[in-house]
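explain this.
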Amino acid sequence: EPYLMFLIENPSLAGYFNEKNLESHLRNVQKYLKAVGEDLDIIQVGDDLGTQNAPYISPQLYRRLIKPYQRALYEEIHRLNPRIKLFLHSCGSIYDLIPDLIEIGVDILNPVQTTAAKMDPVQLKREFGRDLVFWGGGVETQGVLRSGSLDEIRRQVRERLRIFGPGGGFVFTQIHNILSEISPENIIAAYQEARQNGVYPLG
C-alpha cells in the first residue's frame, strides 16, 4: 500500500526502489541461468498488476514507472537464453496491459482470471492467442469449481477447452490455487473432463 502511494506522491522514491529491485533480480537471473539455464524451459516472474475490477494503477502510470523495469528484466532473460519462455503470474483485470506485456517479452500468462473485469476468455483468445500461451483459465475457482454442480464444472471445462485450445497455446489448469473448501469430487470432475476432452485434435 505505501508503495502504491509513492508512485503518485513520491515517484522518485518509487523509481529508486524499482532500480534497486531490478539490480537484485538481474544478479539473480544471471546466476541462475549460468548455473542451470540449459535445463530450463520456463522462468516464472510474479507481478500482480490487477484487482478484480481494473489494474492497480492506470496504464499510463504503469508505462511510466513499472514497465521500463519489467522490460529490462525480461529482455535480459531472453538475451541470456532466447529459448526460455517467460511466464508471468498476474492476477486480476489486466486486459488493458496485455499488449504492453507482449511488447516487453511475456510469452505465458497465468492464471488468466476470467472472473475479473474485461477478462472474457473469447476476447482474450481472439486478440492475444497468437502471441501468448494461456496457462490457466480452465475452470473458475472463485465460482464454478467452488460452488457449481458436477455438470456445471464439466460444462465449463469443455467450454474453456473449446475457447482456448484451438491452435495450441493453452495449458489447462484451474484459475489460481485450489482452496481447502473445494471438495475433492469437484476437483476430480474438472480434471477428468480435461483429460477426456483436452487431447488434440480437439473434438
User: Anything to note?
Assistant: The chain has a mean pLDDT of 96.
